[in-house]
Amino acid sequence: MKKIIIIAAILLNYMVCFGQENSYPKTIVIGSDTVGCVTKAQIIKINNTYLDYAECSDLLSNEQKTTKEQDDLIKKQEAIIASKDKQISIQDSIIVEGKSIVSNDDKIIKKEETQIKFLKIERNVLGIVAVFETLLLGVIYLMAGK
Questions:
Q1: How confident is the model at residue 19 (pLDDT cuts 50, 70, 90)?
Q2: Which of 33, 36, 96, 103 has the fewest beta carbons closer than 10 A?
């Protein structure tokens, strides 16, 4: 937008200077009216400048629409990214919680495995004691029966 205004200002200054160099625009007084006169070449330059300005204005309008659409798209993408970041954060917290649960479960499993080992040892010891008791009672019984 600034470029178009600068170009238009430069062209208008140039045209005014051009007109002054050739003592144009000439003023003619007809009755109580004053008319500014310019040459055909100056009219062509003015018209071309106006057409260039109109074309630039249309291009600027199109560029502004495109820029607005792109800005809207960027905002939507940023919203999607924020949403995805939130989802990732939630998933990360779920993973951390899951790892904590697994770690606790591992501790419980190790504790239970240790208890199972002691129970097996206890069972074996009790079995051995029961066998010795039975043998001892058998020996006592045999000795008492003699």
A1: very low
A2: 33
**Strands, DSSP E only, in the chain?**
26-30, 33-37
- 18-56 burial, b at 16+ Cβ within 10 Å, e below that, comes to ebeeeebeeeeeeeeeeeeebeeebeebeeebeeebeeb
| Mean pLDDT in residue range 90-95 | 95
CA triplet 110, 112, 114: central angle to 5 degrees? Answer: 70
Range of the domain at 55: 2-145
Measured between alpha carbons, how far is 26 from 11 in angstroms, rounded to an integer? 20
- Give the pairing of strands 33-37 and 26-30: antiparallel
Radius of gyration of the chain (CA): 51
Give the tokens for residue 20: 């002054």
Q: Is 96 helix (H, G, I), strand (E, B) or coil?
A: helix
Number of domains in the chain: 1
Beta bridge partners, 28, equal 35
Torsion sign over Cα 69, 72, 78, 83: negative
